[in-house]
Amino acid sequence: MFTKNFRSKGSLVQHFRIHTSEKPYKCDLCMGNFCLKDNLFEQLRINTSEKPYKYNICTNNFRSKGSPVQHLRIHTIDKPRKCDICTKNFHSKSSIDQYLRVHISKMPNKCDICTKNFRSKDSLFLHLRFHTGEKPYKFGVCDKSFFQKSHLIEHQKSIHSNVAVIEQFY
């Protein structure tokens, strides 16, 4: 039998949700359910594009507290992770995990509609918008809508560059 110790009753309850699949926290924006309150808050930041954590070396903002610390490595030569196959160095575990798929041609995220494969869940999520027609980024000046925020920003820069616009996304 497996034994695990927890610092508090709350930690035990959170861990137990892994085994029961209980997800008591619901996002009213995307209707997703989460087992941890922190996961709900992270999802809310994703849905609203909120990035409250700042880093004082560059102008980037981040969704989570740990991201600026990881981001610091981009501004330094600190690349502590090494690919076992080709010895290329990386800033983070997630970077090397994604890179390893290049070697093993693993694209685990499959679209159930057209069977196209993607390296990341985020890429699959964006791809699904093409099937659903969802365009959550609306531009108030000309009422055009876009699948991705970057497309809206590109439209604003190329078509409406002379119009002063307050950044507002719905």
Structural notes for this entry:
It is a single chain. The chain has a domain of 43 residues: Classic Zinc Finger (Double Stranded RNA Binding Domain), CATH 3.30.160. Helix content is 39%, strand content 12%. The chain has 170 residues and is α+β, with helices and mostly antiparallel strands. The strands form five sheets. A two-stranded antiparallel sheet has the order 1-2. A two-stranded antiparallel ribbon has the order 3-4. The protein has a two-stranded antiparallel sheet with strand order 5-6. The protein contains six helices and ten strands, in the order H-E-E-H-E-E-H-E-E-H-E-E-H-E-E-H.
Key structural traits:
about 40% helix; alpha+beta; disordered C terminus; Double Stranded RNA Binding Domain; two-stranded antiparallel sheet; about 170 residues; single chain; 6 helices
What is shown here, in short?
By secondary structure, this protein is α+β, with helices and mostly antiparallel strands. The chain has a domain at 8-50: Classic Zinc Finger (Double Stranded RNA Binding Domain, 2-Layer Sandwich), CATH 3.30.160. The strands form five sheets. Strands 1-2 form a two-stranded antiparallel sheet. Strands 3-4 form a two-stranded antiparallel sheet.
Secondary structure elements and pairings:
Blueprint: H1 9-20, E1 25-26, E2 33-34, H2 37-48, E3 53-54, E4 61-62, H3 66-72, E5 81-82, E6 89-90, H4 93-104, E7 109-110, E8 117-118, H5 121-132, E9 137-138, E10 145-146, H6 149-159
Antiparallel strand pairs: 1-2, 3-4, 5-6, 7-8, 9-10
Low-confidence stretches: 166-170
Q: What is the count of helical runs?
A: 6
The secondary structure category is: alpha+beta
Order of helices and strands: HEEHEEHEEHEEHEEH
Distance between the termini: 50 Å
Shape: globular
Rounded radius of gyration (Å):
20 Å
Proper CATH architecture of the domain at 8-50: 2-Layer Sandwich
CATH class of the domain at 8-50: Alpha Beta
Question: Largest sheet, if any?
Answer: 2 strands, antiparallel
Name the CATH homologous superfamily of the domain at 8-50.
Classic Zinc Finger
In percent, how much strand structure appears in the residues?
5-15%
The total count of strands amounts to: 10
* Helicity level: 25-40%
Side by side, the strands of the main sheet go 1-2
CATH topology of the domain at 8-50: Double Stranded RNA Binding Domain
The whole-number mean of residue pLDDT values reads 80
